[in-house]
Backbone:
């Protein structure tokens, strides 16, 4: 099942390969079908998932089958290293609470991405092949339970992303693309070394061999290779490994000061790619932390919670301030992502259930909300061919539907109760404040709530309220009976949201509202895993709860 | 005279070392491709002298064999080298190696 | 002073020779093929047709059969220790033959030959002679054999490099190659002579025995080793013995560039490893050798220098062939990482890396050749917008480059994975080398990506969007290589097991 | 589930239903579906009236409390905590019942009124939808049984207020005002949220009852300073919503909204929510926190009153008077006059709503003229409005026989009592400010009445400029777009706008609340809403009388207002003395069940204050009456008899006048400090981001940025920068190294030899040494 959901897009990609590039519609439909298929599978997984099974570490008897679900484990690579025994790499998929939500999110966002790619006209064939490749890689990252497999998927994301930004991007796309590529590669090459080191330091309790299995690595007692580089007594190297991994993931998050690729990438990327980038890719960073970085080196995590928290706070406030200063709407949204991912970091740093839960739920909500934000930015960009906030004004008189959705999205993003964003942020704060370590940080980061509201409301006002700006990107004319109409230069389509855009936006909006009113459908899947994770991460947190 | 009568290994080695240096000197300083190749010959002959001397002084045949092969290969090399140099002269109208540097950096 | 052998001895010698020829069949076969090709050339009067190339292809393919026969043979020395039969040599026999085949294929694809030369004449014969020479390099167990085989390879290479007689760049490259090669091989011979002087032996094993038994004067030994290293370093194109390679690679005909960059580099490594593992004392060495000579440090310096220099200078290249030349220098550095470990895993990793390098580099050069056919240029600027006009070639080239960078899911990634695994398994001292390795590979990403960047992200100046089709066979071959690169990137067990199987010299695996 | 709970759930959800229906279908419904809004609110009011009847009138029980909750979020078995759920719930007690009735009633009246006032607006339907969601969230606040849900509805109220203030969003002023309101409230909410976090981090629950139980059990592990901080932080929520200093600035601007909205939200209900919330958390407020609250309240009351006297916009006068009255309530809570404060909340809700609706009627009749200087002589034209408006004014001014008198007097009495108990000189500041503000109130309301209703019409005096002087001028409807004062005669408003006025005015008379026109304490309200028992005093009595030294540093740490420190220091000894005495007073009070609902106080201090307040009752009456008379008298002197010419006075005391006219320059100050500050900071940071951070990462920043836009060779800098953090090193090494490749074969040879013999010499030296 997981294999299917992972490789469905690639299959679609291969089919598209066979379709002549003139048949644009067929190509689109094929990938849409793949995306829908993914959605259906994701739904089945959601239905079939048993929230009571925690996951995170191996179940009884050291095998993953007890604790993970939809597990698929095949021996993939088994090569002889002579004295070092044999190198076993498994094709090992499975989900637990922290990944199943991300799987659902990925399926959702990539489906929406396909829809929003409908307007791509340039080299449709190549576009959708790369897009499907990307979809597979993302999905793979979330379900892979073997570090090697994870790494393969992780790196596999880079190339399609590079081309998708570089070929279909904006005027300055080359710069953004190579910047993205090098940044993320730089983050991940060191991960490779750590991965190898871990391989030599960990044995699988079942087979007794060295293993890449993340499940085995998540149990400290499996670090039982005497004198291995990451053996428990090897504090120095373990610290280094933690930092290396953390930076690798932090670049994806992106965490200050490794975030500068994000605004460039977003500004240049076409709308669907921005949606994917913000909706899913950023989550991979924090997911990696929860899945790999922290459980493998819990004692280092304990020691560094404070630092992580501080970086989270910096992200929150710094991102908010940068967003406040932007003139380009898309850039503002990009910085808002930085700010919102800061909440995730903060929640993780709290190290207790509330915080972790908030972080993970925030990852999910940020996925849906930011997807909405970028789609909305795309909508206005299609019409006005500019994203300068000052080039608009009074839009809500002329595009009421659009304004309504924007209002929902904006308020969701500033964490208004009743919308999903609020609950996750609230839990992040609850957690961060409840843990003594991060309490001061939490107190500081609360400011983020205000500044978040500030930049969002300000942009909302400048674009949608008031009257048309004199130098606005659209013309205003008053017809006979005094009704005002606007039209954008060279925009033939519907002025307000058209059907396709509604199909993309309404589900997201509905999800945002529904999960804001009753979050259990998602949270219910997380809790046991989160609690388990907190236990794995150590008893130290528990004693420091007040 | 008895000095001469007792020419020892060191003498051979010294000679060969000197030859080597001369060869290298020629290779490094001369501009003419032919002369450079002669320098290479000197290097090879230096090696030959070594082989022969050693083979004489530790009484094994391999040295002699080796030097024979070196001589032969030196000849072969010279043949190829000259062919190439002639070709170069055809194209560049010169055999000054320092002027032949269109491929660089 | 030397007493002549008695008749009995001569009899026994002849007997041994007769016996040993049985172990020498592939080489003999290839030599026959060599002459056969020359004959065919005479028959066809050098007329341009594929008879020559086809004969060569089939001949080389045939040789694989004979090589395969040798799996049955026991490891050991033949011809009085001149020559070695072992799995290690076998690996390289396959390697060189196949690379010869691919070189021929690329040649067939390269249209520059039509422009430059009237007759393919001895071209293919020389390729075969190079194959023979390299096979001998890989299997030689004696300094003399090493010298002979190396010269055989070099001579053929000189001629092939200058094969475009009327082409300035080709001839210049030949000259440079010649001079540089001659000097460094001369130095190597001098080093050999010194070794011989120290040990009175030319057989590698005997040398190591003698060194171990009597010890030696470190100073002379160092000088000898350095001079020999100069000879090997020139073959593998490692800094600081690399200077010839960029110019030669740029000037030589593309198939020869590919051939040199893959095969003769591999031959160099084959020699290097055999010499350093067998000849010089290597008993479970600490880094600081008992006899005061720090080989490992020497190789470490070479490897770091190569990785950094190769990658950094490549950033500036505008000519694709030259860019690949520098990248090949960098890859020599990565390979040295495996060599300097001097253990089983290291050897295995090196051999595996060679294989991966073989695939991706040949692939890259093949595509470059095809593109050069269409655009008549190897300049980065002229690659603009090619991705659209040559979709398959573009995709293939991208895959090969990604593999050269070392990103999954390609064989290049696995190669790096093996090398780094070997390093980390060896201990934390080597982690720093691994760090340099990954850092430089990030640099390499940049210049490798310059090519796809030009192919896809930029549009060509001239608006004409007519798509170039390199032809069915070419497409199939490219796709084949591409798929191999990807396939072995995902399922590399057989390759790596074969590398492990082959990492035994004289039937002994290092520990 | 208790039947009342079911009812209240219905009451809660009905307005939401109205919102959902109207927001989606208003355009498809006749009359844009306003009847739905009104009808639904009617039902809601009927139901809550029934609740009120059962709880308060029919069977009153001082300890009445029904609660119901359900698990909203289940966190499972949390390590270190055990099973953990976040619950949502509803609680009904006497206070809730009263608030329910009040909110629904006013909301209903405003709905009704709006059908007339907003008629013809292009977003007529959406307007009622917004009213619906507002009512929903307000009722949510009233009914919530835990901090988390209160916070949720708190923000939702903020949202609906945002939407309604900006209802005429084409006006930049409205857009500014709505943003300002939301942000100011957010600042308050931060504090509230932190307060909630402090409590949660201790008890892992949000529920009021559980929190209080834990507090009473002394489970609060942190220092008392944290508890005080929690109290003050929670109070910050009230500061935001109830427009207390220093966050009062948004309320006057909020008058950009339609006038009925001002009546409903920004006079009667939402702004009162803050006070209601403080009342809810009253039992956990430490004396220190209460002191802060009292002083803020007193100061706000005074400041707002001084501002109100010089405003010319009729709605702004009322707005500031609202701020001032809210100050009273907060003051009341701060001094411990719990019942009185809530009593004032209710009375004020009615008469202030009446005033706003009245002013709305006037504005409506005057075709959206809001400047009192151009009104006058309206009493002839609009008798109904005049009568009701005047009655409400009297109530606001606090003349006897009005409801305002009862409540305000009770508060002031409490203030005096409080000052007596605390016994510190500085505490007398609070009643003094209170009384002084009472006088000012009387003055500016007198002024308003006179300017609006008496004298001759001054419309013709208005300087005729196309866009009406100050931009706060008027609500620009599509229908009532332009206005010509001269032509249209001013006429009384229609019945659906008149009826609410009458009802509200009727509710501003004393007998609704108390048989004795002079003593609210004898009234049912104060009987039925007694001061609840504190949970902090009981659990750890040392809080009340903590030695100054030990508290101050911690207080400073949590940033309470400075005066409390000194105050605390000053009164500490006094309280030691006071406590026992208070104890027996309380006992006595309890024994001969006096007008304190026969409630025994666990906290002696509280008992003492209440008792002293009761004692100070008549003093309060006398002083306040005098003050009010003074105020009105002054108004007469100035505006009726014209003995003092306001214009001349204004010139005479120009600085003071301007200070008041410009609202103490708070807006300017905030603009200059916080807003400018953060904008500048943001610009700075984003510059920092694009140049420095990006720069460090990309190597030499400027180079990168320059090359970033030159499509040519820029990327080589990027790569170098990205790869090893200094663009230069790699790149220049590359540049240098490649020069080695001279193309001259001999140099190659030379370098080869250099390398070989270099090594050799290196080893040679190593061998020598």
Residues:
């Amino acid at each position: 099942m997981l294999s299917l959901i992972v490789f469905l897009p690639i299959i679609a990609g291969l089919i598209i390969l066979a379709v002549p590039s003139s048949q644009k519609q067929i190509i689109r439909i094929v990938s849409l079908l793949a995306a829908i298929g993914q959605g259906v599978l994701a739904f089945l997984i959601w239905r079939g998932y048993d929230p009571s099974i925690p996951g995170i570490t191996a179940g009884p008897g050291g095998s993953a089958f007890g604790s993970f679900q939809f597990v698929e484990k095949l021996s993939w690579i088994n090569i002889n290293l002579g004295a070092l025994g044999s190198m076993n790499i498994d094709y090992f998929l499975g989900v637990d609470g922290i990944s199943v939500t991300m799987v659902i999110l990925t399926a959702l966002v990539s489906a929406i991405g396909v829809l929003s790619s409908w307007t791509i006209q340039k080299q449709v064939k190549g576009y959708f092949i790369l897009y499907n490749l990307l979809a597979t890689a993302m999905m793979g990252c979330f379900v892979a339970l073997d570090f090697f497999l994870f790494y393969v998927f992780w790196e596999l994301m880079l190339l399609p992303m590079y081309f998708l930004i570089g070929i279909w991007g904006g005027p300055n796309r080359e710069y953004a693309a190579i910047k993205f590529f090098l940044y993320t590669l730089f983050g991940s090459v060191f991960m490779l070394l750590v991965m190898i080191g871990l391989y030599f330091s960990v044995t699988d309790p079942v087979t007794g061999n060295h293993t890449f299995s993340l499940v085995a690595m998540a149990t400290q007692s499996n670090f039982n290779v005497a004198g291995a580089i990451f053996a428990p007594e090897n504090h120095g190297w373990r610290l280094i490994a933690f930092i290396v991994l953390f930076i690798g993931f932090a670049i994806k998050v992106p965490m200050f000061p490794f975030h500068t690729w994000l605004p460039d990438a977003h500004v240049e990327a076409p709308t669907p790619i921005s949606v994917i980038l913000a909706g899913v890719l950023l989550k991979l960073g924090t997911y990696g932390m929860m899945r790999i970085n922290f459980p493998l080196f819990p004692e280092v995590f304990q020691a560094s919670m404070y630092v992580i928290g501080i970086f989270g706070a910096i992200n929150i406030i710094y991102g908010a301030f940068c967003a406040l200063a932007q003139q380009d709407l898309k850039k503002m949204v990009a910085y808002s992502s930085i700010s919102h991912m800061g909440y995730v970091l903060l929640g993780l740093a709290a190290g207790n259930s509330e915080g972790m839960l908030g972080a993970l739920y925030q990852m999910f909500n940020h996925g849906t909300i930011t997807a909405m934000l970028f789609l909305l930015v795309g909508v206005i960009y299609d019409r006005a061919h500019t994203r300068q906030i000052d080039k608009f004004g009074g839009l809500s008189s002329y595009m009421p539907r659009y304004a309504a959705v924007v209002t929902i999205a904006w308020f969701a993003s500033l964490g208004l109760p009743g919308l999903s964003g609020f609950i996750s942020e609230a839990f992040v704060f609850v957690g961060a404040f409840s843990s003594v370590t991060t309490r001061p940080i939490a107190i500081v980061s609360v400011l983020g709530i205000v500044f978040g509201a500030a930049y969002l409301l300000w942009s909302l006002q400048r674009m949608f309220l008031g009257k048309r700006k004199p130098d606005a990107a659209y013309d205003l004319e008053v017809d006979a009976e005094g009704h005002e109409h606007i039209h954008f230069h060279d925009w033939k389509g519907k002025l307000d949201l058209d059907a396709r855009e509604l199909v993309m936006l309404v589900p997201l909006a509905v999800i945002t509202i529904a999960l804001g009113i009753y979050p259990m459908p998602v949270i219910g899947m997380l809790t046991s895993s989160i609690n388990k994770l907190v236990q794995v991460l150590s008893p130290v947190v528990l004693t420091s709860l007040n | 005279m008895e000095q001469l009568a007792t020419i020892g290994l060191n003498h051979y080695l010294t000679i060969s070392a000197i030859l080597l240096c001369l060869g290298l000197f020629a290779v490094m300083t001369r501009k003419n491709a032919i002369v450079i190749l002669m320098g290479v010959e000197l290097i090879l002959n230096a090696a030959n002298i070594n082989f022969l001397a050693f083979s004489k002084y530790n009484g094994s045949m391999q040295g002699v064999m080796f030097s024979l092969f070196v001589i032969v290969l030196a000849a072969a090399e010279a043949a190829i080298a000259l062919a190439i140099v002639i070709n170069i002269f055809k194209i560049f109208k010169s055999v000054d190696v320092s002027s032949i540097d269109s491929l660089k950096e | 002073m030397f007493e002549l052998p008695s008749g009995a001895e001569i009899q026994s010698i002849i007997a041994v020779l007769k016996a040993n020829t049985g172990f020498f069949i592939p080489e003999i076969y290839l030599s026959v093929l060599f002459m056969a090709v020359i004959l065919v050339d005479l028959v066809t009067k050098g007329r341009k047709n594929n008879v020559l190339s086809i004969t060569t292809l089939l001949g080389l393919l045939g040789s694989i059969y004979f090589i395969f026969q040798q799996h049955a043979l026991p490891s050991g020395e033949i011809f009085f220790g001149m020559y070695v039969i072992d799995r290690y040599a076998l690996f390289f026999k396959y390697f060189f033959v196949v690379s010869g085949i691919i070189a021929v294929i690329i040649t067939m694809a390269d249209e520059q030959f039509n422009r430059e030369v009237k007759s393919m004449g001895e071209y293919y014969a020389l390729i075969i002679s190079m194959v023979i020479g390299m096979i001998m390099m890989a299997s030689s167990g004696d300094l003399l054999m090493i010298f002979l085989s190396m010269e055989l390879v070099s001579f053929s290479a000189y001629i092939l490099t200058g094969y475009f007689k009327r082409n300035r760049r080709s001839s210049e490259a030949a000259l440079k190659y010649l001079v540089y090669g001659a000097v460094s091989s001369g130095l190597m011979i001098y080093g050999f002579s010194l070794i011989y002087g120290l040990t009175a032996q030319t057989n590698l094993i005997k040398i190591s025995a003698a060194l171990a038994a009597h010890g030696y004067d470190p100073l002379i030994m160092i000088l000898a080793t350095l001079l020999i290293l100069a000879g090997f370093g020139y073959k593998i194109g490692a800094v600081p013995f690399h200077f010839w390679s960029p110019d030669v690679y740029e000037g030589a005909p593309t198939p020869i560039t590919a051939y040199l960059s893959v095969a003769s580099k591999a031959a160099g490594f084959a020699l290097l490893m055999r010499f350093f593992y067998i000849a010089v004392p290597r008993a479970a060495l600490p880094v600081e050798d008992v006899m005061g000579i720090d080989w490992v440090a020497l190789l470490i310096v070479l490897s770091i220098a190569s990785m950094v220099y190769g990658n950094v200078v490549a950033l500036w290249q505008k000519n694709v062939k030259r860019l690949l030349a520098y990248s090949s220098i960098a890859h020599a550095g990565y390979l040295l990482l495996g060599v300097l470990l001097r253990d089983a895993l290291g050897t295995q990793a090196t051999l595996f890396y060679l294989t991966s390098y073989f695939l991706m580099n040949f692939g890259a050069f093949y595509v470059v050749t095809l593109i050069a056919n269409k655009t008549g240029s190897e300049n980065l600027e002229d690659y603009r917008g090619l991705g659209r006009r040559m979709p398959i070639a573009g995709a293939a080239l991208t895959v090969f480059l990604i593999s050269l960078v070392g990103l999954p899911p390609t064989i290049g990634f696995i190669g790096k994975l093996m090398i780094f695994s070997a390093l980390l398994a060896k201990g934390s001292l080597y982690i720093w080398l691994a760090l340099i390795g990954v850092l430089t590979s990030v640099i390499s990403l940049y210049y490798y990506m310059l090519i796809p960047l030009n192919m896809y992200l930029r549009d060509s100046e001239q608006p004409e969007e007519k798509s170039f089709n390199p032809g069915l066979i070419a497409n199939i071959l490219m796709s084949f290589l591409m798929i191999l690169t990807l396939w072995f990137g995902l399922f590399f067990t057989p390759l790596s097991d074969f590398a492990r199987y082959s990492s035994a010299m004289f039937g002994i695996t290092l520990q | 589930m208790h039947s009342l709970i079911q009812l209240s759930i219905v009451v809660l959800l009905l307005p939401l239903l109205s919102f959902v229906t109207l927001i989606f279908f208003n355009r498809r419904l006749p009359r844009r579906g306003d009847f739905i809004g009104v009808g639904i609110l009617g039902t809601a009011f009927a139901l809550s009236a029934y609740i009120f009847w059962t709880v308060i009138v029919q069977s009153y029980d001082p300890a009445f409390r029904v609660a119901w909750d359900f698990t909203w979020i289940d966190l499972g078995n949390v390590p270190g905590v055990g099973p953990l759920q976040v619950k949502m719930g509803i609680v009904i007690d006497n206070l809730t019942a009263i608030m329910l009735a009040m909110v629904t009633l006013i909301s209903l009246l405003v709905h009704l009124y709006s059908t007339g006032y907003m008629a013809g607006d292009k977003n007529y339907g959406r307007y009622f939808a917004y009213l619906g969601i507002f009512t929903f969230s307000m009722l949510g606040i009233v009914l919530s049984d835990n901090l988390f849900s209160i916070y949720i509805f708190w923000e939702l109220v903020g949202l609906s207020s945002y939407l309604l203030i900006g209802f005429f969003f084409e006006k930049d002023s409205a857009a500014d005002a709505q943003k300002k309101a939301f942000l100011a409230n957010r600042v308050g909410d931060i504090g509230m949220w932190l307060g909630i976090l402090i409590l949660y981090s201790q008890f892992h629950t949000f529920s009021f009852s559980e929190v209080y139980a834990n507090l009473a059990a002394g489970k609060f592990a942190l220092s008392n300073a944290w508890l005080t901080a929690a109290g003050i932080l929670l109070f910050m929520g009230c500061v935001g919503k109830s427009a207390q200093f220093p966050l009062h600035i948004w309320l006057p601007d909020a008058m950009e909204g339609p006038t009925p909205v001002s009546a409903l939200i920004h006079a009667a209900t939402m702004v009162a929510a803050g006070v209601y919330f403080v009342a809810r958390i009253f039992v956990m407020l430490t004396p220190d926190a209460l002191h802060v609250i009292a002083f803020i309240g007193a100061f706000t009351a005074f400041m707002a009153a001084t501002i109100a006297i010089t405003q010319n916009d009729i709605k702004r006068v009322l707005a500031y008077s609202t701020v001032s009255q809210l100050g009273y309530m907060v003051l009341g809570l701060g001094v411990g006059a719990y019942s009185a404060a809530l009593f004032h909340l209710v009375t004020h809700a009615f008469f202030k709503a009446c005033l706003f609706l009245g002013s709305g009627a006037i504005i409506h009749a005057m075709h959206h003229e809001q400047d009192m200087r151009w009104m006058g002589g309206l009493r002839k034209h609009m008798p109904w409005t005049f009568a009701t408006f005047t009655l409400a004014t009297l109530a606001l001014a606090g003349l006897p026989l009005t409801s305002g008198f009862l409540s305000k007097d009770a508060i002031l009495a409490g203030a005096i009592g409080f000052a007596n108990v605390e016994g510190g000189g500085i505490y007398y500041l609070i009643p003094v400010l209170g009384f002084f503000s009472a006088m000012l109130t009387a003055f500016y309301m007198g002024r308003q009445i006179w300017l609006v209703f008496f004298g001759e019409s001054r419309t013709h005096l208005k300087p005729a400029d196309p866009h009406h002087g100050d931009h706060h001028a008027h609500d620009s409807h599509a229908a009532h777009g332009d206005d010509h004062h001269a032509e249209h005669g001013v006429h009384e408003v229609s019945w659906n706008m008149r009826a609410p006025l009458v009802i509200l005015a009727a509710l501003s008379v004393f007998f609704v609340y108390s048989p004795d026109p002079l003593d609210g304490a004898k009234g049912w309200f104060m009987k039925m809403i007694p001061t609840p028992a504190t949970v902090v005093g009981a659990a750890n009595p040392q809080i009340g009388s903590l030695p100054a030294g030990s508290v101050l540093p911690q207080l400073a740490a949590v940033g309470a207002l400075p005066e409390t420190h000194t105050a605390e220091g000053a009164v500490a000894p006094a309280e030691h003395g006071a406590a026992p005495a208070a104890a027996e007073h309380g006992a006595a009070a309890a024994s001969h069940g006096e007008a304190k609902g026969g409630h025994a106080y666990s906290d002696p201090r509280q008992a003492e204050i209440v008792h002293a307040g009761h004692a100070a009752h008549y003093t309060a009456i006398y002083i306040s009456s005098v003050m009010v008379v003074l105020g009105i008298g002054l108004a007469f002197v100035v505006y009726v008899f014209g003995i003092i010419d306001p214009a001349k006075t204004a010139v005479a005391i120009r600085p003071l006048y301007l200070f008041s006219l410009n609202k103490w320059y708070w807006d300017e100050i905030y603009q200059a400090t916080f807003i400018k500050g953060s904008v500048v900071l943001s610009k700075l940071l984003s510059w920092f981001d694009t140049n420095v951070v990006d720069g460090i990462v990309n190597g030499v920043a400027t180079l990168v940025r320059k090359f970033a836009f030159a499509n040519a060779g820029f990327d080589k800098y990027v790569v170098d920068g990205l790869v090893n953090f200094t663009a230069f090193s790699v790149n220049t090494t590359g540049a240098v190294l490649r020069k080695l490749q001279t193309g001259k074969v001999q140099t190659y040879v030379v370098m080869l030899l250099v390398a070989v013999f270099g090594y050799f010499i290196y080893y040679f030296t190593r061998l020598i040494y």
